[in-house]
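2024-03-11 09:14:02 INFO queue: dequeued item Golgi apyrase, len=676
2024-03-11 09:14:02 INFO validating residues
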Amino acid sequence: MAQYGVILDAGSSGTRLYVYKWKNHAAAAKDASTTELKSLPEIKLEKSKKIHPGVSSFADSVTQIGSDHLQELIDIALDEVPHHKVPETPIYLMATAGMRLLPDYQQNALLTTMCTYLRANSKFILPDCDSHIQVISGETEGLYGWIAANYLLGGFDTPKDHDHGKDHHTYGFLDMGGASAQIAFAPNSTESAKHSNDLKMVRMRNLDGSPAEYKVFTSTWLGFGANKARDRFVESLVVAYPDEQELPDPCMPKGLRTTLTGEPIDGESKDPILIGTGVFDECLRKTYPLLGKELPCEDQPCLINGQHVPAIDFDINHFVGVSEYWHTTHGIFGGKHKAYDLATYQNNVMEFCTREWEDIEDDMDLEKRKKSPDEKAQEARQACFKASWLINMLYDGIGIPRVGLEGGAMSNSTKDDSDHEKGFADSFRPMDKIEGVELSWTLGKMVLYAAGQVPPSSDDGLPVGFGSNVESGKPEDFELAGSTPIPANLGSHDDDDDDDDWDDLLEKPSGSTSGVFAFIFILLVLAFVLRKPERRRKLFGLARRRHRSSGGRKSSRGFSLANKLFGRNTATYERVMEEGDLSDFELGDVDSDEDEHSDSSEASRQGRASGLATPKFNGRVDELRPPPSAMDRSGLVVRTESRERLSLSTINAGRRSRNVSPIRSKSPFMTPLRED
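2024-03-11 09:14:37 INFO prediction written
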C-alpha cells in the first residue's frame, strides 16, 4: 500500500510543492533483505513545482494568498495523489527565512489564513495548524537538510561504504537561500563530548523497527542568504559614498548601471545609482566584512557573526552544499554536469566579472537556459556578487580547505558529476540532485514522517523525531515526526500495491493518457478473441468449471461486464433448499453458496432438480467432461421436465441440492430472479 506526503516549502522568493511517495513499511519489509531491513523507508519524489512570489509578499494582502497562490499548488498536488489516498495524506506548509523576517502579527495572520484555506479547499490530513502550518527555525531547516543529504548519499543505510575515518560515516550539510544560510554536521567524538549540550538528538526507525539515533549540531545565520547579503553590501556602499550620486560597485561588470535594488537603468536618474567597475579582487575584499568575523564570540569557538559552532574536523567532515551553493557554482560560471573545484571556478568568475557589460549582453550563453530574457539578465547582473559571497562564506567563514589553491590537495575536477555518486572524499561538493531526487530539506521531514509509521521492535520504543541531546528518555522540547505507527497487518498485501499502481494509472489526469489507451486496447483484444459464440461459450464454461472445482465462490455477476460487452445473456438456476416451495425455483444471475454448504456424498452431487449431474473435475483440463446434453442441434435447451417431476426434488427434505442446470432459455414455469 502506497503512502503519500505533501510539503509546501514557503521560501523567501517562492513556494515549492513536493509530493513524496513510499511503500507501507509492512509491504516494504515483506521481501526485504537483511540489509534493507536495517534501512530507512525508501521514499520517492513524485512531483516538484515552484511558483512565485514568496508567501511573505502577501503580508499586506492576506486574503488573497489562497486564491492567488495556494490554489495552484493544491491543484497540482490533487492531480498527483490518487483520489482515494487524499484523506490519508498529510500536508505541511513550512515557511523559512522570508517569513522569519516578518513581525509576529503578520506571521500569525498569514499562517491562520493559509491553514483555513487549505482545510476548506482540500481533504488532506491537517489536524493541527500549529504543527502542519508553521514558520520553522533555521536550526530545524538545517537539521531536515542534514537528514535528507545523508539519506540520499547513503550515510545512514550503508555506513561501511562511507567510512571517513574515526568511525565517522555521515556528511555535513550547507544550505543558502535568499535570506538565510544553514549548517548541520555531526562533530567528531572529541567535539561531541566537549559540546554535547549544543547538539540535537535525531531519532529515526528502520524497517525492522530498530532505532537509529544521531547527535548533530545545527545553526543558522539569518541575513546571510545571497539576497540579504547583497542588501547589506549595498547599504555599506551608501555609507561609504554618502554624497555621491553614482556609487562604484566592484561586484558588477564594467559599465552596468542599476538602481540600488538592482533594476537596470538606461538614462538619467534622480536617485543614487550603482555603476559597475568590474574589479573582482576588490569585490572579495569589500564583501569579507559582511561575515562579521570580528564580532565577539561568547561561546568559543565561533565561525561567523559571533555564533558558536563546534570545531570542524575536515578530515572526516565532508560537506554537501545545496540551493545557492549549487546554482552559483553551476549556473553562469560552471557547466551543470561539471565537478566543482575552486581554482577553475575562480578563473571563470574573474574572466566574466572583469568584462564590459555590453559585451556580456551581446555574447551570453544564457539563451540555452530555461529562463525568460529578463530572468537571464537579472541572473547575470547578480552573478559576480553571489560568487564573491559564496567564496567568502565557504573559505573564510566556514573554513573549507582551499582545494587546488594555497597548497591544498587537487580535486578530480575533470570528473563528470552529472549522476552525483553516493559518496565523495572532497571537503565540499555542491549538489542539486542525487540519482534524480532533489536534495531538499523537505525530504528530511518526510523521512522522519515515514520512519514514524514503522512500529518499534520493542514495547519501550522511543518516539521518532528530534530534540535536545539528553542522556536518556524524551527531551522536553522533542518535536515528533507527526505520524503514528501503522500496525504490521495493514497494507502488507501485494494486491494493495497493485491497486495503487492501477489507481495511479487511471486517476492522475496530469499524467500520460497511455493507461486509458492500454485499457481500451485490452478490451478490444478480448472482443476479438471472444467474437464467436462457440468460443465464448467454451471459454466461459471452462472458467466456471475451473472455479467450481477449486471450491471458489462463483458469482455470475462477475461476468456482467462481459455479458454487456460481448452479448452474452444466459441465465442459471439458483440452488435452493430441497424442502423449498416450487416457487423458489427461479431463473437469474445469483451468487453460489458452494463454500457454505459442501456435501461429500456422491448422491448429493447428482442433479435432483433437473435430472442432470454436475461433472467431477480432478484438476486437469483434459478430464473435464460435459454434462449430458439437454440441447437440440440448434443449440436451444429443450424443456423436458414437468412440474410434477420437479416436485420430486422435495422427497429428501433437509438436504441441499449441489447442481446447477446447464444454460437454457427461460421456462414459462419460472420467474426471473430479482437481484439484491
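2024-03-11 09:14:37 INFO annotate: The first helix runs from residue 25 to 30.
2024-03-11 09:14:38 INFO item closed
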